[in-house]
Amino acid sequence: MKRSWLLLLLCLFLTAVTRAAAPDRLQTLERLADPDYTLRQTATHQLLTDPTLTDDDLIELVRLADLPEQRHRLTLIARHRLIDRLTHQRDDGRSRGCLGLTHHGVAADQTPFDAAAAVRVVSTYPGLPAYAHLQPGDLILAVNGQPLTDKAGPNAATQALVQTIQQMKCGDPVELAIVRDGERKTVEFRLSSLSVLRAIHQQGVSPFEDQWRALHQQLLWQQPDTPPLIVQLPGR
Q: Are 170 and 191 in contact (CB under 8 A)?
């Protein structure tokens, strides 16, 4: 009997915690359609990186969404999180690491803070960590506390970044020193799989297509009179 009461109290506590978090999620949902682009991006980043967010939470947010802008962003978030989750669940510890971005080198005389050559982010791929943690325009200066290069040429920086990341494995933690909007900061996350990047975004053959179709269909059921937004997994 005592054990039953303890389980009941635990369930009530967890329910209270879930309900307490709901208003924050609703505020984030509202910001997904804010006229201010920066606020929309901030809200998107919060949902991309929220470790407690589930597929059911996203389905519920889509149901509550009033505007196409909100539903579209939520669909992109769901797709990213699904690929990321399944990639790490299936990783066998042998795949080389990747960030999931396109980039170009920047010569030392064009970088701030007296830095050597660096790497500028051009675009990021959904389902891979750069999509959630980096932005186009970010300037990557160092990896795990080590500058990319002490040389001035941009090619040296790009080669150093690729080599450093691919020497690591999927799931390894990484810390990047970056410059964003003129301010220096660090971002930390786990690397994804180079093989997944190549399969989805270079070969166009996703290992997770069936799972995405199932989740995407559930999202569409919450969107009355809304045509399908995204069915396939390849990136933007």
A: yes
Co-location of 50 and 138 in the same domain: no
- Supply the pTM of this predicted model: 0.78
**Helical ranges in the chain per DSSP H:** 2-31, 37-49, 55-64, 68-90, 129-133, 154-166, 194-197, 209-221
Cβ contact 233:205 at 8 Å: no
Query: What is the residue type of 114?
Result: D
- What is the domain extent for residue 16? 2-92+204-221
What Å distances lie between residue 205 and 25, 49, 110, 236, CA to CA? Answer: 33, 25, 38, 15
146 and 63 both lie in a single domain: no
Looking at per-residue confidence, does 202 or 94 come out higher?
94
Residue-level length of the chain: 236
- All residues at 6 or more sequence positions from 44 whose CB lies less than 8 Å from its CB, including other chains: 32, 73, 76, 77
Look at the block and give the residue holding tokens 């802008």. Answer: 69
What's the confidence (pLDDT) of residue 203? 67
* Residue 62 token pair: 């889509």
Q: Which amino acid is at 45?
A: H
> Could you report the per-residue pLDDT of 204-230, keeping only the tens digit for each?
667 788 888 888 888 887 665 555 444
Residues 6+ apart with CB under 8 A from 34: 40, 43
Query: Both 42 and 61 in a single domain?
Result: yes
Q: Are 140 and 121 in contact (CB under 8 A)?
A: yes
Q: How far apart are CA 185 and CA 65, in angstroms?
A: 33
In the chain, the N- to C-terminal Cα span, in Å, equals 56
Q: Cβ(31)–Cβ(65) under 8 Å?
A: no
